[in-house]
């Protein structure tokens, strides 16, 4: 695991979507298509990581969708390979963690699928409506 895993500034990409294509029953692929509209490789890596966390947590019958650092390393090595390891940690630290899709607890080295992404989108919508009413 990298020594300085944490939030980093996002360097590239932008979120783009056609409002008519956003549905409440979208697949993970469709959601990631919006988040990583210009980064197909990042999209693939994010999908493997998110599905890997969910798969391990469900298989182990955990109360939360949480895995430890060793399990994250296993996901990256098995699903992505050692050649894409640094890119996988870049996707984690520059996108998935800052955007709130995954939360990372440095103290115990755990990764959890988070609701912070959903909550941030709700706050954006609320702020937009408030701005319109001013």
Layout of secondary structure:
Elements (H helix, E strand, L loop, with lengths): L27 H8 L4 H20 L6 E3 H12 L4 H12 L5 E4 L4 E4 L2 H18 L1
Antiparallel strand pairs: 1-3, 2-3
Helix pairs in contact: 1-2, 2-3, 2-4
List its traits.
globular, 134 residues, 8% strand, three-stranded antiparallel beta sheet, 5 helices, mainly alpha, single chain
Structural class: mainly alpha
Q: What's the end-to-end separation, in Å?
A: 47 Å
Largest beta-sheet characterization: 3 strands, antiparallel
Radius of gyration: 16 Å
Strand order of the largest sheet: 1-3-2
Structural notes for this entry:
This protein is mainly α. It is built from 5 helices and 3 strands, in the order ααβααββα. It has a 3-stranded antiparallel sheet. A hairpin with a 4-residue loop joins strand 2 and strand 3. Helix 1 crosses helix 2, helix 2 packs across helix 3 and helix 2 packs across helix 4. The longest helix is centred in the middle third of the chain and has 20 residues. It is globular and about 50 Å long. The termini are far apart. The mean pLDDT is 89.
């Amino acid at each position: 695991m990298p020594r300085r895993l944490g939030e980093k500034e996002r360097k590239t990409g932008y979120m783009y979507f056609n409002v008519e294509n956003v549905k409440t029953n979208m697949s993970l692929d469709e959601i990631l298509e919006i988040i990583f509209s210009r980064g197909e490789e990042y999209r693939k890596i994010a999908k493997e990581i998110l599905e890997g966390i969910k798969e391990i947590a469900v298989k182990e019958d955990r109360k939360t969708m949480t895995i430890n650092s060793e399990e994250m390393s296993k996901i990256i090595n098995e699903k992505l390979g050692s050649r894409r390891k640094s890119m996988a940690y870049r996707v984690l630290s520059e996108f998935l963690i800052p955007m709130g899709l995954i939360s990372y607890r440095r103290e115990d080295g755990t990764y959890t699928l988070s609701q912070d992404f959903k909550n941030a989108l709700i706050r954006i919508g609320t702020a937009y409506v408030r701005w319109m009413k001013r």
